[in-house]
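Provenance

Sequences were taken from public entries as deposited. Structures were produced by running a predictor on each sequence independently, with no templates supplied. The record for ABC transporter ATP-binding protein from Micromonospora carbonacea is shown for reference.
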Amino acid sequence: MIRRLLRYSSSRARRLLLAELGFIVATAVLQGVAFVMLVPLLRALFLEDMAAVRSWLIALTAVGAAYAVAFWFASQIGMKASTAVLSSLLERLGDRLVELPMAWFGTDRSGLIADIATRGAMFVSSTPYSTVRLILTGFITPGTVLVGMVFLDWRLAVAMAATVPVMWFAFRWLRTSMERDDVEHAASVAEASNRVIEFARVQPALRMAGTHSVADRLVEDALQHQHRAYRGLLITGGAGIATFAGVVQLALTVIIVLGAYLAVGGSLEPATLIALLVLGVRFTEPISNSGALGGGVAVATTTLNQLDDLSAVTALPEPTTRGTPADWGIAFDDVTFGYGGDPVLRHLSFTAPAGRMTAIVGPSGSGKTTIIKLMARLYDPERGSVSIGGVAAPQLGTDVVEAAVAPVFQDVYLFDDTILNNVWIGNPDLDREQVIAAATRARVDEIVARLPQGWNTRVGEGGSNLSGGERQRVSIARALLKDAPIILLDEATAALDIGNEIALSDALDALRSDRTMIVVAHRLSTIMTADQILMLDGNGGIQEAGTHAELLAAGGAYAHYWRERVDATGWQLAPHD
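Predicted structure for ABC transporter ATP-binding protein:
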């Protein structure tokens, strides 16, 4: 476990951790030496050899002082090491999360990540001092005692040594059993966390569904599963610890019986026997205590296994030498892609010219949002390539693509911070006045004017204090602030009223002159002004492509789509006679 922990630690954390382990080993050895020295000291007391008593007391005092110094250093360094290891684990976790492909987040992982970042990381960081220290002491101290016993009475030393493999196998069995059960417990905790978070987020929908909804049942089932898993962990731990303690006590019994036999036979002095039995107790006591700590190592191992699983996830490939795009046009070449199942896009090829606006329309589920996600390199296609300026996205690298693209997705998430800071995320290098100017262009100032704390109003988790249209305006303001050469809009104006849509359209029109814009929209006013329209066929391909006038003149699928939208927006109630 320590080797794996060192792998996830920073250079400073590794130095502190190794120093801590060095002092822990020193304290364990010194403790064992002190126990061994008790034998000649007790024998001298029984024989009333006061000169020998004084000599051994002086030596024992010196060893005790050295032990106190080593223990103090181990404690001080241990606290610093725990803090450094915790910081390292959280930094590695955060760095890894931003490297993972979006496909990994296809299922809800919030419970798993929350468990690693809280319970798991805290437990692992404290394990070297709180658990490993005691386990090392529980085996190194008896090992030192065993070596000393060889010089005192080799027969009892052999008896002690014979019990070591039995105790070791019992300890391993205990640790393996608890590690297996803790894996199930950790999975149940993650699932329960997911359900509770989901339950809290979707309260409006749940309250409309009434009592005894499916969400209530899912939360209850997840919590019951967690309780069963925890109960199983406690039962396994209790039975294992009791078994291990029994094995240790059996070893002590062997030593006592053998010692008594030797004393009765006359080959061992009673004074020496009493001293050696005291030493035998000190041999088994640390081992017995370490059994209860084996489960702690198992719990820490589960978290390290979870971190290993994260490290094993294949990230999107990054180039060793980055290409340079000729312009900011986007091209799809024979792209096929699905979310781990049937393809959503099949052999899709098209070009979105640089500095022009391309609108993507089509039936629900035809892959419009998927195209936007591939352009933003949230995913790489399973087949074919997505390129910017003639360079495939993997050859540009994620950083270059992210800097070049300003996406506004249909599902907007805002951080639980102020409105101003949620816009500022778009470009943290700008000053407050520039941020407010960009937000004003997206009509966020109208939202702010209605709120008592203005720009400093907190939006709540996910932006829950704002309406859907207001959240979209904040998201659009981020994109305007980023000032990227490529703007991706996925139903960005769907939740806006007509007045704000017109205002926003004016702001976007000002950007069209020198930016590549990809727009997924159903608004007629947005579609008809595009330089190019792609009509998807619902089977992962393109049915028609051209300008608004060209496609209407063709009288095909787009013309039918357009007439349906016009009829839908133009209906009215007939006057009642």
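The chain has two domains: 2-312, 330-569.
The mean pLDDT is 77.
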